[in-house]
Amino acid sequence: MIGLGRMARALLTPLLDQGVIARDQVRAVVASEDSARRLRDELGVAVARDPDEAWAAPVVLLAVKPQLLTAVAAAAPSPPRDSDGAPLLISVLAGVTLERLERSFPGWNCVRAVPNTPCLVGAGITGLAWGKDLPAGPRQWVLDLFGRVGVVKELPESQLDGLLALASSGPALAAVLLEALADGGVASGLPRPLALELALAMMEGSVKLLREQNLHPAQLKDMVASPAGTTIAALRQLEQAGVRSALIEAVLAAAERSRALNAG
User: Fold this and answer.
1) Which residue among 8, 36, 160, 212 is buried most deeply as judged by most CB within 10 Å?
2) How far apart are alpha carbons 212 and 208 in whole angstroms?
3) Is 100:70 a contact under the CB 8 Å cutoff?
4) Looking at the DSSP assignment, which residues form a beta bridge with residue 111?
5) What does the pLDDT look like over 217-237, one tens digit per residue?
6) For residue 2, what are the β-bridge partners?
7) 142: nearest Cα among 29, 5, 11, 7
8) Which helix H or strand E contains 129, and what residues bound it?
9) Exposed e or buried b for every residue in 172-209, given b needs 16+ CB within 10 A?
10) Could you tell me the pTM of the whole model?
């Protein structure tokens, strides 16, 4: 693992806990000795600043900041060769295209992955796009790996920025919505712990209802909003505040930022 930030840890931790990957199989590289020491204690895996041993592995997860790609690629050694063919490079770098990865890391089989933070609890979403001529064996291995931490979607690469904006940035948007709803409960007189508990339970129940009865969100909205009632008064406030438009623009902004990151 080249880089071991939040997203990489969200992927690695459940795989270690499930025993899918043994701790002694992992070699991770981070920028500072302080970070290496802390992560060794936290995860129980080998973490160092020297990347040579990690680059020699048959599978490398690239998880640095996109802005560091050029420097990391320049320092990467030529890939090792064995009877099984080219090693596998899985990139979780936001916005960085397969074309750029394959140009930066010649000799590697490349995969572009866009996971999200709920992978940490096995409820993630990962979008995958495949590099040129990737054999069936490595492809299935990657599908199985990410399938251990949630739902996997094989997509044309052109759709990955949209998936990133909705599914990968989305948990932060959902957290803001939940926090705001809980704040509304507090403003209405509820104790804060109860307001947050109710907001979470309401959101979970609403998603369960939508899924199990195969409802469109508009159908659920109409089920709850009775004429001249409390819910339609609340919905009117959302429309006046432009909340729907703001959420659409937030997702679009995240997608545009993802595309911009590929330029370095």
Assistant:
1) 160
2) 6
3) no
4) 90, 130
5) 999 999 999 999 999 999 999
6) 29, 62
7) 11
8) strand 124-130
9) ebeeeeeeebbeebeeeebeeeebbeebeeeeeeeeee
10) 0.91
pLDDT tier at 264 (50, 70, 90 boundaries)?
A: low
Report how far apart, in Å, the C-alpha atoms of 8 and of each of 1, 163, 180, 202, 255 are: 8, 18, 29, 30, 21
198: Cβ contacts below 8 Å, ≥ 6 apart: 182, 185, 190
Q: What token pair was written down for 235?
A: 């919905």
Question: Two tokens at 83?
Answer: 């009877």
Please tell me the predicted confidence (pLDDT) of residue 62: 96
Closest CA to 127 of 97, 157, 149, 148: 157
Task: Give Rg (Cα) of the chain.
Answer: 22
* Cα separation, 83 vs 220, whole angstroms: 56
Q: What six digits make up the tokens of 29?
A: 């590289």
H or E element in which residue 114 lies? strand 109-114
Q: Is residue 155 a contact partner of residue 128, using CB atoms and an 8 Å limit?
A: yes
